Amino acid sequence: MTLYCIGINHRTAPVALREQLTVPRDKESIVLADLQRLPGVEEIVLLNTCNRLEVYLSASKAVVNGTEILSTVAKAVSGSGPGIEKALLERSLRIHKDRDCIHHLFRVASSLDSQVVGETEIVGQVKRGYQQAQEAGTVGKWLSKAFQKGLHVSKQVRTRSGIGRYSTSIGAVAVDLACSIFDGKWSEKTVLIVGAGKISETTLRHLSKKGAKNVLIANRSFERAEELADRFEGRAFRFEALPEALAQADIVVSSTGASYPIITQANLLPAFRQGGKRSLFLIDLALPRDIETDVQNACGIYVYNLDQLNEIANENLKRRENEATECERLVTECVGKYWTETQSAPKPKARAEPSALPAFQYCCHAVCDPLRAHSVARRWAH
C-alpha cells in the first residue's frame, strides 16, 4: 500500500486556481466518492480550507496521477463549468509520497505549513476532514492511523512549545493589549466594542475566551448589535447612545467602516468626565481611523492604532517563527518513530478465505467420496 498527499496551497497556487478547487461542504461527500472510484484508490481524506486543497489517499498501485486526482475534484465542483488549465494545475500541484506524505501531514496539523505559523484553526480543519471521511466510509486503517497520530503530534507541538502563545491577528493582539493594561483582571472592567463587523466579532470571541464579563456593543444597525450581544452575553447600544456607552467604558475597541472619526473630543471628553474614570484606553482597529487624533492629548486618555498593533503582531510572528525551529525538530522525530513502527509491524499472512471452503467441498462431493472430498478441500485451502 502506498500513501499519497496530492494538492495545492497558498504557496504553490494563485488564488484563482484555489477558488476553482474549493469544495463546497455539501459536495465534499460527492468528491470523496468520485475519488474512491478511481483505479487503485483505496482510502481518501479531503483537507479543504481557504488556503489549501489536499487529497490524502492510500493506493494499491505505486504510481498515481496527481493531475487526474485534482481534475476529478474540479469536475465534481464545477460540473459542466469551465475546466482548469492543465499546465497551471501541473505547475501548482505538489505530491508527497509515503514517509514524505506522513511528514507533510504532521507539519500541516501542527500549523507549521500554515500561512500564519502557529494558528489554531488548522487543527479543527484537519479533524473535520478526517471525520468527514469516516462518515463517508472512505477511510480505513492506513489513513485512520496516520490522521490520529497527526492530531496527537499537533497537540504535542503546542504543549511542548510556545508556537501558539503569541497572538498575530489584530483582534487577538488588541485583546492581549487590553488584558495587559488591566493585568488580566476583567471582572470589574467594562469593554465597549464599537462596530459589529468581522473584526469586532473576532475581538469579542477573544474577549470571551479571556473571561471578560461586562461587554457593551454599539453599532449603526441596532439589530446586529443585539445579535452579537446575545451571542457574547453583552449589552447592545444604539449608535446615537454612543456617548452613554463611552461614559461606562474602561476600554474601547473601535472598528467601523466610517469614512470619518466617530469618536472625537466633542463626544468623548464629556462622557469621560461624566463616567468619573481616572483613565480610558482606546484601541482603533479601523482604517480610516475611527478615533480623532487629538483625543490622545487629553489627560488620562490613551489611544493605540493599527500601526502600533501591527508592530506587536509582527514581533509576535517573529517569536512564533523562532519557536517553529524546535517544532520542526519534534515533528521530524515523531515522523521517524511512526514510520519505523509502521514498517516493522508484522504483515498478515495471505491465506484462502474460509468462505471458499464450503463451495469447493461441495464441488468435490459431486465427483468423489464425501470423506475424501473433505480431505481434498482442506489440502486445497492450505
Description of the structure:
- The protein is α/β, with parallel strands linked by helices and 382 residues long.
- The protein folds into 2 domains: 2-108 and 128-148, 2-Layer Sandwich (Beta Polymerase, domain 2), CATH 3.30.460.30; 170-312, NAD(P)-binding Rossmann-like Domain (Rossmann fold).
- The protein is built from 15 helices and 10 strands.
- The protein has helices at 15-20, 28-36, 66-78, 86-92, 99-109, 121-136, 141-159, 170-181, 198-210, 222-231, 242-248, 265-275, 306-344, 356-367, 370-381; strands spanning 2-9, 41-48, 52-59, 94-97, 190-194, 214-219, 235-238, 251-254, 280-284, 301-304.
- It has a 6-stranded parallel beta sheet with strand order 7-6-5-8-9-10, with helices on both faces. Strands 2-3-1-4 form a 4-stranded antiparallel beta sheet, sandwiched between helices.
- Helix 2 packs antiparallel against helix 3, helix 5 packs antiparallel against helix 13 and helix 11 (242-248) crosses helix 12 (265-275).
- The longest helix has 39 residues, at 306-344.
Write a concise synopsis of the structure shown:
With 382 residues, the protein is an alpha/beta fold. The protein is built from 15 helices and 10 strands.
